[in-house]
């Protein structure tokens, strides 16, 4: 597996992307803004197709579209925090633009036969097709996003758990909201190249949801979410090496979904055990207790 240069490139890029998705996704789930991640995944698709339609670098459309729309969400929302009504209206408009740019691009590229391939790559990602320079860029962006998020983690957590009290204590709630939305946009733009816009939400939500099921401690949850996201990428790449006929994105999302399902089962089992009444170990002791009560 490690003798293949494309696999090493995928591991480097995937590690940076997974770290960013795990950390950003934790706050995304904690702040009940998963719909924002879903919308930005489609914004990534629309931005990439717009860039391709106008003949410019695909990454320009990815990052510009995701960051600008993320800021728009914050501007239209309350205290820099997008609400579902705003996201729903912008979402519908973005989907319409996506269809328009896809039609424009595939029509212009119909003679070359490359239009469909590029569209599929934007939708489902191509982590094994990244160049070494793109992998290093992905790692650098992922580490930068992770570092910024860790620097603002404490006030962001305060603003997330009790927004009103945080604002009264002087925490810049609106500025933090805008900053967090920009981080989501950057993460979405970078991660789309690896797992695609259709599967981006899974990498943002599944590791974070799993971490929140396993622990109530926020910093441990952050670490667990990031670790699970990296594990999803690594195990997905390993499974791709073992079963190459299935796409890498499928394996990554499968690992994430199975892990989340296992966490749900474990969480429910633990709650059931806590709610169950204590049972005496010795039947004779139980009978003695009943006689004494009578």
Described by strand count, sense and barrel closure, the largest sheet is: none
CATH fold group: ABC transporter involved in vitamin B12 uptake, BtuC
Give the number of domains: 1
Portion in beta strands: under 5%
Spatial shape: globular
Annotated CATH architecture: Orthogonal Bundle
Helix fraction?
Answer: over 70%
pLDDT average, as an integer?
82
What is the tally of helical segments?
13
Order of helices and strands: HHHHHHHHHHHHH
Poorly predicted ranges: 284-290
CATH homologous superfamily grouping: ABC transporter involved in vitamin B12 uptake, BtuC
Number of strands: 0
Class from helix and strand fractions: mainly alpha
Radius of gyration: 23 Å
User: How far apart are the first and last residues' alpha carbons, in Å?
Assistant: 71 Å
CATH first level: which class? Mainly Alpha
Tell me what you see in this structure.
- With 294 residues, this protein is an all-alpha fold.
- The protein has one domain: ABC transporter involved in vitamin B12 uptake, BtuC (Orthogonal Bundle).
- 81% of the residues lie in helices and 0% in strands.
- It is found in: Cell membrane.
């Amino acid at each position: 597996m490690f003798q293949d240069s494309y696999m090493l490139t995928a591991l480097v890029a995937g590690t940076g992307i997974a770290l960013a998705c795990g950390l950003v996704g934790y706050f995304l789930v904690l702040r009940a803004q998963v719909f924002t991640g879903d919308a930005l995944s489609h914004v990534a698709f629309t931005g990439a197709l717009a860039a391709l339609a106008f003949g410019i670098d695909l990454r320009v459309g990815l990052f510009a579209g995701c960051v600008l729309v993320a800021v728009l969400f914050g501007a239209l929302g309350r205290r820099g925090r997008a609400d579902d009504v705003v996201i729903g209206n912008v979402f519908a408009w973005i989907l319409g633009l996506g269809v328009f740019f896809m039609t424009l691009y595939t029509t212009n590229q119909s003679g070359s036969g490359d239009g469909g391939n590029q569209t599929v790559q934007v939708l489902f990602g191509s982590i094994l097709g990244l160049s070494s320079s793109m992998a290093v860029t992905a790692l650098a962006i992922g580490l930068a996003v992770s570092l910024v998020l860790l620097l603002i983690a404490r006030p962001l957590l305060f603003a997330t758990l009790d927004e009103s009290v945080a604002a009264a204590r002087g925490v810049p709630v609106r500025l933090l909201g805008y900053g967090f939305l920009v981080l989501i946009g950057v993460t979405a733009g970078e991660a789309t190249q690896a797992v695609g816009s259709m599967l981006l939400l899974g990498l943002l939500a599944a590791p974070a949801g799993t971490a929140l099921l396993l622990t109530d401690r926020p910093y441990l949850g952050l670490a667990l979410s990031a670790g699970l996201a990296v594990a999803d990428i690594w195990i997905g790449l390993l499974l791709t090496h073992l079963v190459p006929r299935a796409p890498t994105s499928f394996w990554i999302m499968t690992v994430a979904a199975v892990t989340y399902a296992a966490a749900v089962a474990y969480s429910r089992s633990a709650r059931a055990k806590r709610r169950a009444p204590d049972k005496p170990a010795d039947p004779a002791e139980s009978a003695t207790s009943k006689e004494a009560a009578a």
